Amino acid sequence: MMTEKDKALLQKKHITEDQFREQLQCFVHGFPFLRLSAAASVEKGITVLSEAEQQAALKAWDAYIADGHAIVKFVPASGAASRMFKNLYAFLDATYDEPTTDFEKTFFANLPSAAYYADLDAVCMRLYGAGVGELLAARRFKDVVSALLGKDGLNYGHLPKGLLKFHNYPDGARTPLEEHLVEGALYAREQDGTVCVHFTVSPEHRALFEQLVARVAPVYGKKFGVKYNVTFSEQKSSTDTVAANPDNTPFRQADGSLLFRPGGHGALIENLNELSADVVFIKNIDNVVPDRLKDETVRYKKLLAGVLVSLQEQAFSYLRKLDSGCYTVDELLEMLQFVQKKFCCKNPETKTLEDTELAIYLRRKLNRPLRVCGMVRNVGEPGGGPFLAYNADGTISPQILESSQIDMADPEKKAMFEKGTHFNPVDLVCGLRNYRGEAFCLPDYVDKATGFISHKSKDGRELKALELPGLWNGAMSDWNTVFVEVPLATFNPVKTVNDLFREQHR
Fold it and tell me: Model pTM?
């Protein structure tokens, strides 16, 4: 039964009672596994651009910028960096006091080269009256780690990744936020020199992000001859989901109130929907490299964008033709070829459709948001991959899937997942407007059946958590999707603190 207190909470979060009941039903019924046609590969669904195609894409992007379009770089940056330091927290809790595991030995051996070393040294002097070098010589390893992670020290264990110092430069260290500002100047600069960058952040860290931007944006603006327009948003509380007990009843906290949890990165489709832009680049906060390695990243970002605007231009010309009613049977067949070859969208029933029905079908398939996704060769990274999957309407189209969406109990499906040749590095360029220049309503293109249920705990009690369809998974399910192979060098995420000691981050 819902209490008045429950209703007030729902109202505060802008969640309707119907949505609340819908969420509870998801726990009861669960989510179906996606029906797969095949893992995407170079032979099937992933494009490898020839040198001539690369040049054409770069030219198309330059022409698009010159035409005065609105471009935004969108960076999800709300997660705390605590997972990055999981091994160091384990060291603090360990019964031993000196580096023992390979991870611990690597960390301390390389620590002097860290971009945050000078800050850490100053903090250690403040806390212990001795610098890092002295503390290590005195075998006070845990004191150094406490100074790095603790709230009295650098507080790195509680800050988001975007605010940590990643890379060293002669003029000082840079955070990922700064590296994204630099990237924006190199490939997302509008005709008038404006660079729009949008970060999604958590409410508790927003002020820190704003302070850093206020300090560094003028510096990078002067360096690259651009004007930054940096904006922030937070995950909406209306996208939170209710937690449930193992028996699917609402989970209540000690004070009797309902427990709501953030709905995962799929909630960010709402934030993306509020951007006023023709083209949006999406890339995770931790996937950045120093300037000496940026050339390849920049080149491939421009390539993906060039592919997007070229495909968009062709789709728009077909839509104008369809909406005018002036088309021939041959032109309809040409459009069908385009949908099949460029968007890899197959429908066996098109052979039986009358011309008018085919025109309606083509308009429906062409008139939707478009994304071009960079895919790297699989190197065993955890996460989603590119597949050709069946949609609710019986068509087959490219989708990025997580392992939770695949029936691993089915040997055939499991083999598809394990033998996948490519991996999703979250490198997307998105077209968010139709041929009339009107913004698509992005929540309309979410496949609600692609959420998933995870098992968590709170105050020592088990609970079920409802994850919304992921941003680049089910939240973009009904978009037109194109997979393009990009080099592994464009994918350099920082998942653990020791990743910063890899050659790519030095």
Answer: 0.92
